[in-house]
Amino acid sequence: MLMNTQTSQTLVKVQIIEPQEIALWGMKQLISTISNFQMCGSASTAKEALDIAISSKPDVIILEPNLEDSDGLKLITSLLQHTHAKIIIYTGSNNPHVHDQAVVLGARGVITKNEPIENLLKAIEKIHIGELWLNRTATSRILMQIAALNTPKVISDQEKRLSNLSTKEEKVTRAIQIHAEKTLKEIASTLNISEHTLRNHLASIYSKLQLRNRLELYVFCGKYQKTINPQDHPRRRSTDL
Predict the structure, then answer these.
(1) Which of 13, 51, 60, 142 has a 20 to 30 Å separation from 108 between CA atoms?
(2) Is the pTM of this model over 0.85?
(3) Closest CA to 89 of 74, 77, 99
(4) Which one, of 145, 42, 58, 151, lies nearest residue 99 by Cα?
């Protein structure tokens, strides 16, 4: 029997999510050998795992992300949304991209199945008290990924021009995209404004976007400003300007 190295006897409720029955059985037996670890549930599918997590309120969840019915990495987000558990990835995969992605999504550590059993038990203890379980190489990679995600996006000149449009003008540009086959009078009707008002909006839009006519507006917006539903994009026409 493995001895518990934790000095505090705080009870740690553990849930295991593992698709392989033999591995699941072995992990349950392992957890039962530690006096202050309590199995509060186990599951082999994502749906079952989420239901059990919500009802049993585990402190720590051990997750094998390679599930048969779902992408276990996506399950991390759902588990964090519905519980206060800390998640450990326990996986047979040695793919560093999978490990890093799991941590970026919210897992507190990664253990591979070829590591000593003691590592898993230590990881549960450390993660339960708020620490991370990552090696230095993984930590460096993950910090770089997080920094990249938080780097401000470079705004193009075209996007800057589009950002100068008013709410009404943006609505007009989208209507021009969706109703390319209609006349200005017909488009004005769909917007519940007069044709004169529409032409005034277009004059302002042409000036802000540095365009000359409806065709240029259609091409510009088709490239830099997608309609709300991309399926509504009509075929481009050079007529009816």
Answers:
(1) 51
(2) no
(3) 99
(4) 145
